[in-house]
Design a protein that fits this description.
Two copies of one chain form a homodimer. By secondary structure, chain A is α/β, with parallel strands linked by helices. Chain A contains ten helices and 13 strands. Chain A has a seven-stranded parallel β-sheet, sandwiched between helices. The first copy, chain A, has a two-stranded parallel sheet with strand order 7-10. In chain A, helix 1 packs across helix 7 and helix 8 packs across helix 10. Chains A and B meet through helix 4 and helix 5 of A and helix 4 and helix 5 of B.
C-alpha cells in the first residue's frame, strides 16, 4: 500500500491514473491537488482512499504544507496548462502554470527533505521540428522548441535535472506524446473533431463540415489509459534522473485520424481549415521511440488506436447529449 | 540620438554601460528600471539624459506601462539575480528574478507591439561542464547546466527564441562570461578576494589568509567596460535571433588570479578553502571563443587583465576605507 500525491487531480490524465490505481494498486492512499474543484467521484474508486486539497500551485506555502502533512511516497505531477494553442495566446500564464508550479513543487520537497519519488511529466513538443531522418524520436534527440508551451516544458526539465543532480531529489522524467481517450476537453484536436462528427451524425450540426487546424501534421497518439500504466511503472522501475518517452511509436496525420473516424462512424465529412487554429509555428511530424521505457519497465501500449477512437466517440455521444 | 531602456539600472554592468553611452553616444536618452533605489549620480553622465522608474519586474503592469510611456528603441536587459551561489540557496527567487522578469519584459513588448531591439543577456554558466577538447567554447556547444542559475538563464534563452521566431520580436542574445571591474559587489569571487587582500596589505585583517571557494576552477574573465561596448555593438550590429558569446577568450584559475594580485599588490597571502563556498556541483573550466562577435561587430576586448585587476584594487582601497 503506497500513498500518492497527484497534482492536477481534476484533469484528464488524473482520472485515468486513479482508475489504474483502483484496479492495479488497491489500498493506495491518494491526495489530489487542483486549482479547480475536485471532479473525482469517489464511488468510482472503491479500492483507494481519496483526499483532496484545493490549492493553486503558484502558492508555494500551500504546496509545502500539503506535502508536509501528507508525506507522499510518490508524487505524480500532472498539473499543467498543456495546450500549445493557449500558450501562444497567454505565454506568461502558460509558463507560470507549467514551469513555476513545478519549481514550487520540487522546492517544497527539497526544503522539507521529503523522501519521495517525483514523476515530472514533459512533452513531445519539446523536440520541435525533427528531420524525418531522426524519426522515430529517441530521448537523445536535441531539443528545438517552437512554442511557449514547449519552452516551459524544457525549463521544467532543466529544473528537474538540477534538483535531482544538485539537491539529490529522486525525480524521473517523461516526454509524453499526444494523449487521447475518453474525458479529454474539446480544446484538444481529437476531441474537437470527434465532437463535431458526433453532431454531424446526429444531425444537430449546422453543416457537414469539420473545422480543423493544420490537417497535415503528424502526431504519435497514445491512449491515456496506457499512459497511466506507464506512469505507475516509471514510479516503480524508472531510473532516478532518467527521462523516458511515453508514446505509441506510431504516427498519423490529423487527416488520417479523420478517415479512421469516418470509417468507425459510418459517415463522410468535409474538412475546413480555420486559419485561426493555425499556430505561428508548428512541428510537422512528431513520432517517438518507446524503446527505452519498454526495456526498462516492460511497458507497452495495449489499447489500439481503433479502440481509443471508439471509446472517444462513445464518450462524446454521451457528453454531447447532456450539453447541447 | 537614441533612447534606451536599461533594466537593472542600479547594477554593476549598468553603471559601466552608462559611462560607455556618455562617452560614445552623447545625446542618448536613457530610462532605468530597478527594484532598488537609483544609484546613478547624474553628474557623472553629463552627455546623456537620464530618467528612472523604480519597479519590480515581477510586476507585469508596471513594466508594460513604462515601456508604453517611454517607447524605447533599445532595451538592454541587465536585471538579474546573477549569483550562482545565491541560486543554490534560493532557487525559486533566482529563477523568478531571471526567467520570469524577462518573460514579463518580452510579453510587454509583444502586447504593445513596441518596435524596439532587445538585448537578452545570458551566461557562460549555461554551458556547464565542458570537455577540454571543446575549448574554447563556441556558441554551438550543447548546453549542460549544473546550477539553478544556469537553468534559469537557459529558460530565458528559450523564451527569447520563441518570442523572436514565434512573435517576431527583435531580440539579440548573449552568453556573457565572468565580468570583472570596479564597482562589483563582493559576493562575487574576484571582488571578494581583492577586498580581503586590500585589508591584509593595510593590516586591518585578523589574519593573512584569503578565504576562497574552489581555487582550481578556471574562468574567462572579461572587463565590464569591454562588456559595455560589446552590448552597444550588438544592439547596433548583431543579427536578430542570433546569440553571441561575450568573453575574453582567455582562461585563468582563481589561484592564478590570486598570484597576479599578489604581484600587483606586492604581498604574499595564504589561501584557505571554505567548504561553505563550494557548490553542489560546479563547472571546472569555462573559456569562451569570441570569434562570432568579433567577426560580426568588430568588437574586441581592449582592457588587459592586469589593468582590470589594478582598477579593482584601487576601487577596493577606496571603498573599503569608507566601510570598515
Amino acid at each position: 500500500m503506497k500513498n500518492y500525491l497527484i497534482t492536477g487531480s481534476s484533469g484528464f490524465v488524473s482520472q485515468h491514473f486513479l482508475h489504474y490505481l483502483n484496479d492495479a494498486c488497491p489500498g493506495s492512499h491518494v491526495i489530489g491537488i487542483d486549482v479547480e474543484r475536485s471532479t473525482v467521484d469517489i464511488r468510482e474508486f472503491p479500492n483507494i482512499r481519496w483526499d483532496f486539497a484545493r490549492a493553486n500551485m503558484l502558492d508555494y506555502a500551500a504546496i509545502e504544507s500539503i506535502i508536509e502533512e501528507f508525506s507522499p511516497e510518490n508524487i505524480i505531477h500532472l498539473a499543467s496548462f498543456s495546450s500549445v494553442a493557449y500558450s501562444w495566446k497567454r505565454p506568461v500564464e502558460s509558463f507560470q502554470n507549467n514551469t513555476n508550479i513545478f519549481l514550487n513543487l520540487v522546492e517544497a520537497v527539497r526544503k522539507l527533505a521529503a523522501s519521495c519519488r517525483i514523476l515530472s511529466i514533459g512533452s513531445s513538443e519539446e523536440y520541435g521540428n525533427v528531420d524525418h531522418t531522426s524519426l522515430p524520436i529517441t530521448e537523445s534527440q536535441p531539443l528545438a522548441p517552437v512554442s511557449p508551451y514547449a519552452a516551459a516544458r524544457i525549463s521544467q526539465e532543466l529544473l528537474s535535472r538540477i534538483y535531482c543532480q544538485g539537491y539529490g531529489l529522486d525525480i524521473v522524467m517523461t516526454r509524453s506524446f499526444n494523449h487521447i481517450g475518453p474525458g479529454q476537453k474539446d480544446g484538444f484536436v481529437i476531441p474537437s473533431i470527434v465532437r463535431q462528427m458526433v453532431r454531424i451524425r446526429r444531425g444537430t450540426s449546422a453543416s457537414d463540415e469539420v473545422v480543423i487546424g493544420d490537417g497535415s501534421i503528424v502526431r504519435d497518439f497514445v491512449d491515456v489509459r496506457d499512459v497511466a500504466e506507464a506512469y505507475q511503472l516509471l514510479l516503480e522501475k524508472g531510473d532516478k534522473g532518467e527521462l523516458y518517452n511515453v508514446c505509441s511509436g506510431r504516427g498519423l496525420s490529423i487527416r488520417e485520424i479523420v478517415t479512421k473516424l469516418q470509417n468507425l462512424m459510418g459517415i463522410k465529412v468535409l474538412l475546413r481549415t480555420d486559419e485561426n487554429l493555425l499556430r505561428p509555428s508548428d512541428n510537422r511530424i512528431i513520432v517517438g521511440s518507446n524503446r527505452k521505457i519498454r526495456l526498462k519497465t516492460g511497458w507497452e501500449p495495449r489499447i489500439s488506436l481503433e479502440q481509443s477512437l471508439s471509446d472517444i466517440i462513445r464518450d462524446w455521444e454521451k457528453r454531447d447529449h447532456c450539453v447541447p
